[in-house]
Amino acid sequence: MRVSALLLGGVLVLGGVGCMKRVPAKRPPDAPVPAKVPVLNVRSLGTPSALIDPPPEPATDKMPFDLPLGKGYGIEGSWKGPNQVKGTTKFERIGDFTLKKADNVDVDPKEVAETLEKWIASSGVQSTQSSGAGTLQRSMDYGTPRTLGSIAYSIRPDAAAKEVTFHIEVREQPR
Description:
Layout: H1 2-19, E1 73-84, E2 91-101, H2 109-122, E3 126-131, E4 137-143, E5 147-156, E6 163-174
């Protein structure tokens, strides 16, 4: 009886071993390939604002940012852009500028802020939200008929100096 019990137990164990077939887990599906955003021209926004895509200006004595003539301003610096923000339909235009006066007189940063405010207002954008108006640092969200955007600037130093610098960032995207 003992031998038959051992034999029966062995058959059951061997039969059970054969039933323990391992099935590998299913592989998760591959992540979808993100849609590629094509490289676009700023005109793809439809009607971009003059802040991000200024219209060509005829040859005149006009200063950048409509700085007043006859005050001896000299401006150095440049814009980078408008450039498409990689992988998006957004565009940005960033600039760093330095103002000096030809007669080496101090430049008033408050006058620079007023000039930038007039320049922004002349672009025709409609402000939707703003902070820092009347100060040397400002940000503003705006809209045009087909785009939404933002502009921010900061002016340094905060007191009159021989040289005043300002940094501007403009970003815009389709509505």
